[in-house]
Design brief:
The complex is a heterodimer of chains A (342) and B (447). By secondary structure, chain A is mostly helical. Chain A has 2 domains: 18-141, no CATH class; 164-327, no CATH class. Chain A is 60% helix and 0% strand. Chain A is globular and about 80 Å long. Chain A starts with 17 loop residues before the first helix and ends in a 15-residue tail after the last helix. Chain B has 447 residues and is α/β, with parallel strands linked by helices. Chain B folds into 2 domains: 1-24 and 119-360, NADH-ubiquinone oxidoreductase 51kDa subunit (Rossmann fold), CATH 3.40.50.11540; 372-438, no CATH class. The radius of gyration of chain B is 22 Å and the shape is globular. Chain B starts with 21 loop residues before the first strand and ends in a 6-residue tail after the last helix. The chains are: A mainly alpha (342), B alpha/beta (447). Chains A and B meet through helix 1 of A and strand 15, strand 16, helix 9, helix 13 and helix 14 of B.
Amino acid sequence: MDKLIVSPSPHIHGKESTRRLMGDVIIALLPAVLVAIYLFGLSAIHLVGVSVISCVAVEYLIQKFLLKGKSTIGDLSAVVTGVLLALNLPVSSPWWLILIGAVVAIGIAKMTFGGLGQNFFNPALVARVVLLVSFPVLMTGTAFQAPVDGYIFGNAEISRAAMDATSGATPLSFVKEQIAQGMTVSEITKSSGLSYFQLLFSAIGGSAGELAELALLLGFIYLLIRKVIKPYISLTIIFTVFLFSGILYLVNPERFMDPLFHIFSGGLLLGAFFMATDYVTSPMNLKGQIIFAVGIGVITMLIREFGSYPEGVSFAILIMNATVPLLNKIKPARFAKEAQKK
Amino acid sequence: MKTFRMGGVHPADKKISQNAQIEKLPIPKTVYISMIQHLGAPAVPCVAVGDKVKVGQLIGTPTGFVSAPIHSSVSGTVKAIEMINDLSGRQVNTVVIDTEGDEWMEGIDRSETIEREIKLDAKQIVERVKECGVVGLGGATFPTSVKLSPPPTAKPTCVIINAAECEPYLTSDYRVMMEMPEQVIIGGTILMKALGVNKCYIGVEENKPKAIAKLKEFCGKYSGVEVVTLKKKYPQGGEKQLIDAVIGKRVPSMGLPVDTGAVVQNVGTAFAVYEAVQKNKPLFEGVMTVTGDCSNQQRNFVHRVGTPLSFIMEFCGGVPAQAAKIISGGPMMGKAIVNIDAPTLKGTSSILYLTEAQTKRKEESNCIRCGKCADACPMGLEPYLLNKLGRASMMDELEAHYVYDCIECGCCSFTCPAYIPLLDTIRQSKAAVMKIMKSRTAPAPAK
């Protein structure tokens, strides 16, 4: 002992660190990634690999050459964005599409605002929406068919069935089209053979991360156990969607799909578990979080049932992201009440 | 199980010195008795260089209502009265005494017998506690007699003995409960009598089952005394949190604890009150822990106030090679020691050695807005926001977000995954805002 450290209290720190939290999110996303790889083999590896590498590279280069600061890739947040971006893209995405997504997510949505913690919108979702609007053909419809060549060790029967059943469309867009053509719900389910089993066990077309709802649930439970997130936002979104679609379903079951279909299809669970719970772009206090989550649920259902897009989770989360600074003005419950004036 | 209503963190317990019995520390050749050992106005020396003093003799008189007298902890000759550095490096007026023998003042009962009957009345108790220089030993060292003289508007309803000892490592309160349980309970009944209340709760955290059992063994004999087992959560021993945990009432912002009816005293204080009232012994000794993961000695001592910390460290085999930070107090709210030759004070509760790995601050990174600081804040504040406002010196905004409610427990800094030293900023901002608020209520200067 030559010199003693002297600093104000507290003198110890909990085990939590940004890197550890981000690492936990990556672990929580692994089941969904593994399911995508199981179903689509090399093309899924390609998608996740390119996405993660580009996101990390973009952050590193911007930090080094534009912001001229210390490298921040060690906090693993770029890896999280990379995995989330991959899970939001169709498995068939070409490498350049993924790269554009990474530049938009990290370059525009994150680093422009000052890097981690400073952005208003969820980077992966901004990228998804930009790509959806700019390259609609690559992001919808037949894009969800996986290239059969790239498929190596997956279960051929399940993934073929998935492709056949949906003819390259997601269940949401399929149902929406059919209803627009005047078919009733019972006719649709009869002719397509859609079942909850398929929704739950990944046998339906969609973005890489929309395939396996059970795998997402597993990741969500891991995050809860590790106390990385609290369940309020996710559960409120799901409950709101359940309530909203349930009312519609009760009003007219032949025009509207039932609540379970809405919860288990599309990006709802991916959004509710992993996108809406993003620390940076969700409110800090419980009241704000509940309003935020109800908003996401309502907007999602409005777009799904009454908008022109079949799916609305991304838009709903981004719209509610914009309200976060306002929602953060809600003060948390205070311990001490003001003393009574004597 | 009871606990406070919001926030809190769970640092690892680390009570590695809990089984070490309290030993008597040898008396050093020279003691340095500081005139600032309490919150409030410093005491003024009432002895001169060359005077012979006895153990327990008054050597510093209080100045003002919130102040406390200081007594000599040794017998010997006053060698000097000078400014010396305290453990933080501040200059403090100090009486330096060369020790000769160990001759106590007459009238101090040094026997081991437990005096159960309380002969003094309420007024005499408060007077005795004041004369004996008893101060709060839980950390703040607020003069106990002041707490026992609540303003006429306040109506005390109960005494709460703070036995939470929620800081990691510290075991001095635990040892006092294990070895002097009945004296602590008698101390509680004395406090009840002084305040004219008939209820005394002893709040102990669940991680001290033996102490709980010990106290329960005796409290049946004393009416109104009840042991309350609390959940283990930091900062349970914070006065506001403890009152909330035990009686479910909240101290108002900027208000006094007694506004809830509760008067809180630490275990060590209750014992000091017992010694003052039943044994006529002024407060010149204290129980402290010497501990740390890197230390091969885990001990609890009774020390004479004014013993140099370095003397104690030497007595315990010297400073461990791996120690990078030495703390007086707990790791959450204690003070880092700047000057290891500084003397112990009435309120000194420990010498804690931490290694570099345990205590070195990591470089801060961007706030990720996880909200963990707000969840951890036991006062329901928003530390991330206060930190931002504080760094921008936005005083009005800081006040609007109740920075003055902060109890400086450190839960926010402890929990922050980005390693932002939130409390550093908030502590400074709080001081600045409180100063402004005070100047506002002060009478306008005469024109």
